[in-house]
Amino acid sequence: MAITIQAAAVTGVRQAEILKLETPDLRAGEALVRVRAAALCTLEQRAFSGKMKMPLPFLGGHEVAGDIAALGPGTNEKLWQVGERVAVRLLYSCGECYYCRTGHTNMCVHSQHKPVREGMLPGPGGLCDFIVVQTKDLYPIPESLSYEEASLTEPLACCVHSVERADIQFGEDVAVIGGGIMGMNHVMLAKRRGARVILSETDEARRKLGLLLGADIAIDPSSEDPVKAVRELTDGRGADVVFNTTAIGAVVPQAIEMCGRAGRMIQYSSMHPDVPVEVSPHMLHNTEKTLTGSISPTERDFFKANRLLSLGVIRMEKLIAKTYPFGQVQAAFEHACLPGTYRVVVTAE
Ligand SMILES: [Zn+2]
Ligand SMILES: [Zn+2]
């Protein structure tokens, strides 16, 4: 049965409005989820600020947690029940392209072409009071995990993907450049993989938080040369793994240099505008360094992030800057766009 829902859509530059939409009837394998928390990620911020040109109205929200309000006909009731608390995966992968078939669902060539159900708006679509989703995109969460923290499953999953790509070994030296939410996720995850973690971050409060969340050492790249500092800490070798979580072009050559022999440098952040750097092929030959990147999580990464949060292995509460009730979504967007802000989460009223 169709219901009227409220959707907090971007309708203009720095303008968010609550629109009324009619949901389609639930199909088999679908659920209606009451959204309890939706976080505002970079995609939503860029759509709101106009930095990313989107067809408007654009309905963002891909970091969502809530509970099941209704199930479509024929849904497996052994697996899912009305009232169950869930984190929701809203980024799309088709399951049928070359990359999906080979397990790289984060590389799906159709990821930007998520089918839009009738009556709904384009975009990941989580910034609503209710959403229609497939049950395969639901991940159960326990009572002990708040909806706000559970809404951050997707950003944690992005970093699970990145940390898995670095294949960290016990006792390795891991440098994390940048202490934003993604940098902090890398700090927490790398620590749990048995590494010594060195955080490089200019802001003192963030360095303190990094040390609290698991960094062994925090260096200030504005007062000392971070490459030299990491080399000194590692008997001149450089780090085994370097994650650049910043979008600062000038940091990339430093990240490559900071990385030691047989090391792995992961370019985690996207780069706007892109800044190409020179790489010495002789250096690559000589050091066997791996230079690579990381983008988005696979379902497997999402599942692992869900486990880490559900079991309390990783806590996200310190990375939530502020929560706003759904009706104040405009203020929430404005706050989220302030530089240096951790996650802003919109909650059900
Ligand atoms: Zn995100
Ligand atoms: Zn695909």
Give me the strand/helix succession: EEEHEEHEEHHEHEHEHEHEHEHEHE
Unique ligands = zinc ion
CATH architecture group name of the largest domain: Alpha-Beta Complex
CATH class of the largest domain: Alpha Beta
**Mean model confidence by pLDDT:** 96
Terminal-residue CA separation: 23 Å
Helix share, percent? 25-40%
Number of domains: 2
- Largest sheet data: 7 strands, mixed
Give the name of the CATH superfamily of the largest domain.
Medium-chain alcohol dehydrogenases, catalytic domain
Q: What is the number of E strands? A: 15
Number of helices: 11
CATH topology of the largest domain: Quinone Oxidoreductase, Chain A, domain 1
Radius of gyration: 21 Å
> Which band does the percent of strand residues land in?
25-35%
Note poorly predicted spans: none
Q: Tell the overall outline.
A: globular
What class would the helix/strand composition place it in?
Answer: alpha/beta
Any overview of this molecule?
Strands 3, 4, 5, 6, 7, 14 and 15 form a 7-stranded mixed β-sheet that branches. Strands 10-9-8-11-12-13 form a 6-stranded parallel β-sheet, sandwiched between helices. It is α/β, with parallel strands linked by helices and 349 residues long. It contains 11 helices and 15 strands. It is globular and about 65 Å long. The protein has helices at 42-49, 98-101, 147-150, 153-166, 181-192, 204-213, 226-233, 251-258, 281-287, 299-310, 329-336, and strands at residues 4-12, 15-22, 30-39, 63-71, 85-89, 130-134, 138-140, 173-177, 196-200, 217-219, 239-244, 259-267, 290-293, 320-325, 343-347. It folds into 2 domains: 4-152 and 316-347, Medium-chain alcohol dehydrogenases, catalytic domain (Quinone Oxidoreductase, Chain A, domain 1, Alpha-Beta Complex); 162-293, Rossmann fold (3-Layer(aba) Sandwich), CATH 3.40.50. Helix 11 (329-336) links the parallel strand 14 (320-325) and strand 15 (343-347). It binds zinc ion (ZN) (2 copies). One zinc ion binds at residues 41, 62-63, 154-155.
